[in-house]
Amino acid sequence: MVLEASIKSTDLSIGYEYDYGILWVVNSVNIVVWRNTTYCIIGESGCGKSTLGNALAGLLPTYAYTNGYLEIEGRTVVRGDETNYNGVRGRIVTRIPQDPSSALNPYATIGEQLVKVIEHHYGVRENALEKARELLKLVKLPLEVIDYYPHELSGGMKQRAAIALALAPMPKVIVADEPTSNLDAYLRGVVASLLKRVQRELNLTLVFITHDIALTSVICDYIAVMYAGTIVEEGVSSKVLHNPLHPYTQLLFKAIPKLGYRETLSTIPGSPPSPTSYPEGCRFRPRCPVGFSECYKAPKLIEVKPQHKVSCWRYA
Ligand SMILES: Nc1ncnc2c1ncn2[C@@H]1O[C@H](COP(=O)(O)OP(=O)(O)OP(=O)(O)O)[C@@H](O)[C@H]1O
Ligand SMILES: [Mg+2]
Q: DSSP letter string over 279-298?
């Protein structure tokens, strides 16, 4: 199978404007996400996952700044400091938010919302309601939900409705930002499997941002590990999960609690740096148990094994 790029970024940086200037929270990200695959982004809170996801979906706030190059499905959306998501945002790429209520209008039924999105993108259509029913079927919601208001749905049903809404424009790329973190363990698995099935059936590219590392082994084809605004490790999910190379990834995986074990939880010493004061060189250096003098220079993300990249001087 020939892999085609769905998303390509070169030195993509993203910052937010504060009173004292621009705070760059995502720095020089180079990624390629292949079509029809699931690409997971993991990493500690505040490392920039949502910022990167919002840039892919064209949903950054007006006071955000971008720099570098970003291409979605062959369309250049970021070049230098110019952005242009016309015809891409909400059509080629859509987003599933963490909180489904933020995607659903409380004053309209699920059917009305689906029809509105379909008609917005494809014009008024007699068969829009039929399409809405098909979408509900696809996400395994009972058809009567078409007449329900969001408050009449359970948390899991709301998340499925939000997925249906994201699928309504028939996008090529979906960015799902922690779509399962508000759900219980059982529903997390159900919703993640549903997303994976839909991704395969509709040949979508799925970017899945999550804190739930266990879930990545079930649904991801590729994993990117972010730390303090940069990608420190990336590769085929089985390689990253079974043979993590970066000291941060190794410690992150060790910190996952295991069912049935009462051992003391392993933690990563220290805390992630603030974007206002990133350390010189490798950003993980102050917390790294195996750092050495070379780490005062910034490492690059390089392929050290087939389909497995790492940004660490130990492998340079
Ligand atoms: N809308 C915003 N305006 C200003 N700063 C922001 C905004 N959103 C995020 N930030 C800052 O950008 C940095 C990265 O935040 P981001 O939300 O991307 O992290 P995250 O990895 O998604 O975290 P979490 O896992 O907690 O969701 C943080 O320092 C945060 O304070
Ligand atoms: Mg986030």
A: PSSSTTGGG-TT--GGGGS-
The DSSP output letter for 89 is B
Task: Map tokens 């059982």 to a residue.
Answer: 186
Given a contact cutoff of 8 angstroms between Cβ atoms, the answer to whether 227 and 278 are in contact is: no
Hey, is 266 helix, strand or coil? coil
Nearest to 234 by CA among 42, 4, 57: 42
Q: What is the pLDDT of residues 7-62, one digit of tens each?
A: 999 999 999 999 999 999 999 999 999 999 999 999 999 999 999 999 999 999 99
Q: Which ligand is nearest to the CA of 224?
A: 1
Task: Return the percentage of the chain with pLDDT > 90, whole number.
Answer: 81
Q: Is 61 in the pocket of ligand 1 (CB under 6 A)?
A: yes
Cβ contact 105:75 at 8 Å: no
Q: Kindly report the pTM of this predicted structure.
A: 0.95
Q: Cβ distance 229 to 48 under 8 Å?
A: yes
Decide: 83 in ligand 1 pocket, CB within 6 A.
Answer: no
Residue 216 vs residues 33, 55, 178: alpha-carbon distances, Å:
16, 22, 12
Whether 127 contacts 147, CB under 8 Å: no
Q: What are the b/e assignments for 24-41, b being 16+ CB within 10 Å?
A: bbbbbbbbebbbbbbbbb
Is the distance from the beta carbon of residue 230 to the nearest atom of ligand 1 less than 6 Å? no
